[in-house]
Specification:
It is globular, with a radius of gyration of 22 Å. The chain is of the alpha+beta class and 500 residues long. Helix content is 34%, strand content 23%. The strands form seven sheets. The protein has a seven-stranded mixed β-sheet with strand order 17-18-16-15-21-22-23. It has a six-stranded mixed β-sheet with strand order 3-2-1-5-14-13, with helices on both faces.
């Protein structure tokens, strides 16, 4: 009998394959980075063929390292960077070009033009999302309008569209030789083409965005058998779970009850709260999204606050400014300054997401004096992630009417003890890091395992969640209020920077 479950975690900066045992512990893993392609300011692309190649490589490496064969795996789940848009040829599997990454800003003009007829919230009631560069619909339209012959081929049924989960599923299950073209409800809810109430592609939205329905994947639940892998190291293993990365982290953190929330600190920063079986509209600039859907059970929904730049700011300090040699060095550099020295860093490189939704915002460093040094810059960069999380949490508590007792955290940045302590200080409540930190991949593995009976049910998964580290707030309220006041001033100055 298969004793393990696998998860492909295709993220913004890297691809991983992790094998878990029945208690959610990591048995084997492999990870490889991929290129970030930025041909113009505000444009961010990935090579889909590189993503597929990295996926094959990490699956093979993790299986080989642990000495596993396909029959050792009960199923494989997929979790992915959401909104990133790829279009490929149905017959050959070749992409039309690079994928447009969720951070890409090239459709800002289209957002403005659509907003003139009904405002930024013209589709929010149906989709839970404001008009923004973030989501897939306008990215897909851009590809169809700017790649030679693409719209004609799409109308002829020759092209397929998907977020990265759909692209990987299609390739994993055979590609041009019978590959399954499907996505799950969580990823579909990020396209701005899904009706949140009936969980179907909406004809009116397709018309508004000028998208031919023949390119769209079938919408499935987050936990069911979609097909079997044709890839040699996992050949014949059921592909049985799909969740967008942030929903996967919510699921991996076992936030199965309304009011439970998690924050993932990765390339961006994403705070999600389970709100139950009905979509919850937001009055404070949050997103309403699908949290997960298990087989034929009703879907569960979430409120989400999305921050575009978190860990990406540390990468920028490393790769573009050369302040640090490795991302892990940022904590030591930040600790070299006793505080932020009055420096505040608003990383609005791609505008500001929740709760501001201001595409014309741009990044700034405020409060500089001759006293400031690179330690203060590093500390301000870390603190920016905590400040943005605080902004989102305040909006979420206002929308939901629920005050969180604590915040569950995950993602690559949670190893940074300085950041986690400052986050607890800023929120004025405990921050909890789980024993298993790979919660995104774990969520996809849980969804896949539930579909094939590898896990008994949600109560078993709840029992397996445990706290590894707890940070309690230590900051005096007056000091906290002063820090937040200056942060708010810095944000105000970044808004509408490009408005003219």
């Amino acid at each position: 009998m298969a004793g393990y479950i696998g998860a492909i975690d295709q993220g913004t900066t890297s691809t991983r394959f992790i094998v878990f045992d029945g208690r959610g512990r990591v048995v084997s893993q492999a990870q490889k980075e991929h290129r970030q392609i930025c041909p113009k300011p505000g444009w961010v692309e990935h090579d889909p063929e590189e993503l597929w190649r990295r996926t094959r490589e990490v699956v093979a490496e993790a299986m080989r390292t642990a000495g596993l064969v396909p029959r050792d795996l009960a199923a494989v789940g997929i979790t992915n960077q959401r909104e990133t848009t790829v279009v490929w040829h149905r017959r050959t599997g070749r992409p039309l070009g690079n994928a447009l990454v969720w951070q890409d800003m090239r459709v800002a003009g289209d957002v403005a033009r659509l907003a003139r007829r009904g405002g930024l919230d013209r589709f929010r009631e149906k989709t839970g999302l404001p008009l923004a560069c973030y989501f897939s619909a306008l990215k897909l339209r851009w590809i169809l309008d700017h790649v030679r012959g693409a719209r004609r081929q799409a109308r002829a049924g020759e092209l397929l569209f998907g977020t990265i989960d759909a692209f990987l599923l299609w390739n994993l299950t055979g590609g041009p030789r019978g590959g399954v073209h499907a996505t799950d409800v969580t990823n579909a809810s990020r396209t701005q083409l899904l009706d949140l109430e009936n969980l179907r592609w909406d004809p009116g939205l397709l018309q508004s965005f000028d998208i031919p329905d023949g390119v769209l994947p079938e919408i499935r639940s987050s936990s069911e058998v979609y097909g079997r892998a044709a890839l040699a190291p996992i050949k014949g293993v059921p592909i049985a779970g799909i969740l967008g990365d942030q929903q996967a982290a919510l699921f991996g953190q076992t936030c199965f009850s309304p009011g439970q929330a998690k924050n993932t600190y990765g390339t961006g920063c994403f705070l999600l709260m389970n709100v139950g079986e009905r979509p919850a509209p937001s009055r404070r600039g949050l997103l309403t999204t699908v949290a997960y859907k298990l087989g034929r059970e009703p879907a569960r929904y979430a409120l989400e606050g999305s921050v575009a730049v978190a860990g990406a700011l540390v990468q920028w300090l490393r790769d573009d400014l050369g302040l640090i040699a490795a991302s892990a060095d940022v904590e030591k550099l930040a600790r070299s300054a006793g505080d932020n020295g009055g420096v505040y860093f608003v990383p609005a490189f791609s505008g500001l997401y929740a709760p501001h939704w201001n595409a014309a915002a741009r990044g700034l460093i405020a409060g500089l004096t001759r006293y400031a040094n690179k330690g203060h810059i590093a500390r301000a960069a870390l603190e920016a992630t905590a400040f943005q999380t605080r902004d989102v949490l305040e909006a979420m508590e206002s929308d939901s009417g629920i005050r969180l007792d604590s915040l569950r955290v995950d993602g690559g940045m949670v190893v940074n003890e300085l950041l986690m302590q400052f986050q607890a200080d800023l929120l004025g409540r405990p921050v909890l890091r789980p024993r298993v930190r790979e919660t995104t991949a774990l969520g996809a593995a849980y969804a896949a395992g539930l579909a094939v009976g590898f896990f008994e049910g949600l109560p078993q998964l709840r029992r397996q969640w445990a706290v590894e580290r707890r940070w309690k707030p230590r900051l005096e309220p007056a000091r906290r209020a002063r820090l937040c006041r200056y942060w708010d001033k810095a944000v105000d100055r970044s808004l509408d920077w490009l408005a003219d």
